[in-house]
Structure formats: C-alpha cells, structure tokens
C-alpha cells in the first residue's frame, strides 16, 4: 500500500538497507537497560538474562498471500502483526518478552520506504512492551515477501505455564471476544457494501491485533493458572491442544463463548454462522486458560475476572470445564445437546 516513488531495495543493497532499518528502530535494542550488551551491528547479539529466570524462545513466519494481502495491509501493519503473534506466544507461556530478531525476505523492486515502514510498525509495538530488536537478516525473495521473527522472553521457573498443566475438573476460561479477527478478514475480503456498527473495530483486530502480554502477567501473578495457550489457530484447535497435552477431555458451553456484537451483526449480513469464526477462525490472540475447579471455583473465576478487568480492562469468561475422559472434546448447545467439537482451525498447509 506504499504509493510514493523512492529508491528501490535493489538500488541501495543489503548493507545500506540494514543501516536504514536499524535507524527506523530508534533506541529500541540499543542500551544495556534492556539487557542488551551488543545488539545490531555484530555477528550475534550479546544479551544479559535476569538472574533466576528461564529463557523462552519462539518464532513465527508470515508469508505474503498466505498470512497477509498487500492490497489492504500497510507496511506498518505487517510489522506490527508479525511481532504481535510472537509476543502472544511468550505471553501464553507466562513469560515477559525481552528480545527479538527480525528476518525479511523482500522483492528487490520493493521501495526502501516499504521495508522501513515494516520496521516502524515493529518498533511501535516493541516499545509498548519493552522489547529490544537485536538483530536478524535480510535476503531477496523474488516471488513473495516473507517476514520471520524469532523472539526471546523470560519467566521465573515457577511461573512458566504449559499446555499440559490442566487437571480434571479445572475451569476453562478465555479473555476478550472470539471470532473478531476472522470477522475483520471477512470485512476486508467481502465484495458487499457493509454498513455495520463496529466494523472498523473488527478490521483493526485483524490488521493490528493486541497480544495479551499484560493480561497474561496479571493472570500469572494470581497464582491460579494451571494451563494456558493463545488462540491463534481457533478456540476448538487450541482446546484440543490443551486437552491432548494434559491427557484429558474438555466440555464447553456454546452460549458462554464471548463474541463481539459487531461480528454477530456482520455474520447476519453475510449469511454465515458467527460461531464458526469464534471456534475455528483463529488470529484473535486471546488467551485460553484453566484454573483449579472444586469448591468455590466459580467464585474464584468471577474474582479473577474482576481483577483482570480492573487491571487491564480486558474481560475474562468462564466457558467450560476439563473432563476425565481423554480426547473427548465437546460442546453443549443452547438446547442442552452435547456435540463433539472437532479439532479444526487454521491450517497452514490446507
């Protein structure tokens, strides 16, 4: 979506491009206050971990035509979104994101301003979460643009949260609303003229999602989380992942799944089921988590929801419970009928 005419990447070469991209980051990743001994400019970054923590590592790749469309993504939105999905992975493990390395595969005929825009979007979100960009790579990719981010985070050993930690009877909760990102994508790709209140909010959820880093930190601080995952591939698939990793089943209630009213209205106009977006759409970057069941557990869930709302402004909704029967993941519809919930969601190779 960059329309200005300027120097092309092929005209200035890799090293000049790297210098300009590093300048786009400003002070991000250039000081020991962020645990950076040596950042961009050497063969490898030198980092200082916090004493007593475990290092968390994740990476996520985005490919033009598969994960984003240049007809409606700005360069800044591409950069923001690429970092957001990585921040979400660290948050879901109970960690604090610290450092990131960014690799770009760029078409040689792309303008330098386009690449700088990507880095501007990365820098904006990185600064919000205190993340230092400490290196990466650039290369020519003639057929499509690729962005790959490797992120490193930290967590104290007692606070690392796995998918495998759920227990029978644990309550299942989710942050925020589900299906909004998929609804936003439908807005962008629909040929219909859509006049829906809240449409812009849905589109922004798809283009510039907010990872629940602060929310994860608040939840971990409560000391009640037994398992957690981020909802990047859809609620159904992530619920299967927690169930499989924990050797349990799960049961959720359809009526309790939180959805944005704008998404429900949009679905009616497009004559689709909004529940499909919530269950299988993915890319919401909300958190799926479990807390201990037992006596007083609904009260504890409500109390945790009040704390999260007060500290972050984000809602937390109780949607179900973990079950003993391994592999049985099901949903109860509004009529009380129990239905199997298939392990479907976003599939990179479908």
Description of the structure:
The protein is of the alpha+beta class and 350 residues long. The chain has 2 domains: 10-159, 60s Ribosomal Protein L30, Chain: A (2-Layer Sandwich); 163-340, PurM-like C-terminal domain (Phosphoribosyl-aminoimidazole Synthetase, Chain A, domain 2), CATH 3.90.650. Helix content is 36%, strand content 24%. The protein contains 10 helices and 13 strands. Strand 1 and strand 2 (46-47) form a beta hairpin. Helix 2 (75-92) packs parallel to helix 3, helix 4 (180-189) crosses helix 5 and helix 6 (213-221) crosses helix 10 (297-312). The chain is globular. The mean pLDDT is 91.
Fold blueprint:
Elements: H1 9-24, E1 36-38, E2 46-47, E3 53-63, H2 75-92, E4 96-106, H3 112-128, E5 132-140, E6 146-156, E7 171-175, H4 180-189, H5 199-207, H6 213-221, E8 227-231, H7 235-246, E9 249-253, H8 261-270, H9 274-281, E10 286-291, H10 297-312, E11 316-323, E12 329-332, E13 338-340
Parallel strand pairs: 4-5, 9-12
Antiparallel strand pairs: 1-2, 3-6, 4-6, 7-10, 7-11, 8-10, 9-11, 12-13
